[in-house]
Amino acid sequence: MAMSTLNKISMPLAFAMLAAAAAACSGTGPAKEAGGQADKPAATKEPVDIIFYSPLAPRTVEQFMKERGDDIQAKFPQYRIQFIPYAKGTETADLIAAGQTVDIIMSTTTTINELVKYGLQYDMTELIKKHKYDLNRLEPSLVRFMKEYSEGGMYGLPVSVSTFNLVYNKSVFDKFGVPYPKEGMTWDEVYELAKKLTRTEGGLQYYGLTMSVPHMLNINQLSAPYYDLKTNKVLLEEDKFKAVVGNYARFYQLAGDKAGDMITQWQNVFVKDQTAAMMVYYASFTLETKFDFDWDVISMPYFKEAMGVAPQYTPSYMEIAANSKHKDEAFEVLTYLTSDEYQMKQSRQGIMTSLKNPDVKKAFAQGSDILKGKNIKAYAPDQAALITPKDQLSGIAGSKATSFFKNIVTGQSDINTALRDAAEAARKEIETARVK
């Protein structure tokens, strides 16, 4: 990397980028076919830096290289794959101020707002047409979300996806003689199990089911949104959203005066204390966590009015930055990351694919020792709920719903009062945000 570039950024960032470059190998050989596309972008013969950035996510250079960077570098030896970690001094505003360009930004449905906030969004529609990229290969709901967010354009491509499922501790069920949850259960059926498992025993409080409220509201299976940007209406008091809140709240209310503890300690009571029988969270969590007990999973329970509909997917997107100097090369990399070849490798390792390809889906976790003997079905839903808007104003409304949820489960307010108060607080903050 030229010193002129390094002089524009902080020394910690310079060292990080040099570390990435050192970890990557370089060369001038041609790139292989990525597979799965009608026409691949022509690979440049000139060595160029392809710089990745993940805003609002504390990922290290080493993590990135292990997760994706090494594979990309091996596929494209003519590029120098680099990564800028998000940290103090390298936040998005810092990079903009320093004149530092990036090529590919890694985002989720919520952190993508960072692109628009700093004007880094770039509509890839012309590149998609130019290189005859087939969007129909991708999971439709993921494309739909991005197109809606991009107002008809396409800011990014989904490279992986996760869902939520229900993981359970067999020993807690065995302790109280309660049958294990079964695949295809409704929320009402799981609630009946939770009632039998929420109790005090030997001075310990046991919980039937625990969950992360912000996540559960955000990916709800009824696709109940927080806010309508077109009508500027807060939707927290709508019947559908109220049904979602009421469903989750009843599991907390089983714990009585311990309900407040569940809100803050929802993960600890399951993983560390082992006093919760069930937990609903990211499916990927079971792949990243070493549990000290016998466990298994089922798909997240279904609402009776939406049987078979899994939670909203939580996709990971990659976008080409507006200030990238190597847009065609960056698109070539994205083509590879969404190819059958790469997605098959990822799927076998236990990373859910963003493709429709049934063969890639069937290969899920075949190379994972962690999931041997587990209910793999819970990681591959047949149908997922439509992804609700995740814009900044929706985020404001969602945060108010989360805050007032505690009032419901601790008995400070009934559900109607709490959601009315949450909606009013959201409207005030949204109006202030819209004026700025």
Can you characterise this structure?
The protein has 436 residues and is α/β, with parallel strands linked by helices. The chain has 2 domains: 206 residues, Periplasmic binding protein-like II (D-Maltodextrin-Binding Protein, domain 2, 3-Layer(aba) Sandwich); 193 residues, D-Maltodextrin-Binding Protein, domain 2 (3-Layer(aba) Sandwich). Helices cover 41% and strands 15% of the residues. The protein has 19 helices and 12 strands. The strands form 3 sheets. It has a 5-stranded mixed β-sheet. Helix 2 packs across helix 3 and helix 18 runs antiparallel to helix 19. The longest helix is centred in the last third of the chain and has 21 residues. The protein starts with a helix and ends with a helix. The N terminus is likely disordered.
Low-confidence stretches: 1-38
Q: Helix coverage percent of residues?
A: 40-55%
CATH topology annotation of the largest domain: D-Maltodextrin-Binding Protein, domain 2
End-to-end distance, in Å? 39 Å
Categorize the overall geometry.
globular
Tell me which oligomeric state these chains represent.
Answer: single chain
Helix count from the secondary structure assignment: 19
The total domain count is: 2
Number of DSSP E strands = 12
Organism: Paenibacillus solanacearum
Protein name: Extracellular solute-binding protein
Signal peptide: 1-31
InterPro entries: Bact_solute-bd_prot1, SBP
